[in-house]
Amino acid sequence: MSGLVRFADRFSRPRRIRRGATLTLVFASVLATGAATGSWSDAADDGRKTPPPPVRSDAVVPAGRDADTAEEAADAAAEAMADGKSGKKAAEEAVSRSGDRWGSVYSPGEYQEFEKALGGGYTGVGLWARRTADGRLEISRVQRDGPAGRAGLREGDRLRSVDGERVTGRPVTDVLTLLRGDRAGTPVVLGLERAGRTWRETLHRAHLSTDPVTVTELPDGAVMIKVAAFTKGSGAAVRAAVRTAPEGAGIMLDLRGNSGGLVSEAVTAASGLVDGGLVATYDVRGEQKALHAERGGDTDRPVVALVDGGTMSAAELLTGALQDRGRAVVVGSRTFGKGSVQMPSRLPDGSVAELTVGHYRTPSGRAVDGRGIRPDLEAEHGAEERAETVLTGLGPPS
Question: Contact 110/354 with Cβ under 8 angstroms?
Answer without folding.
Answer: no
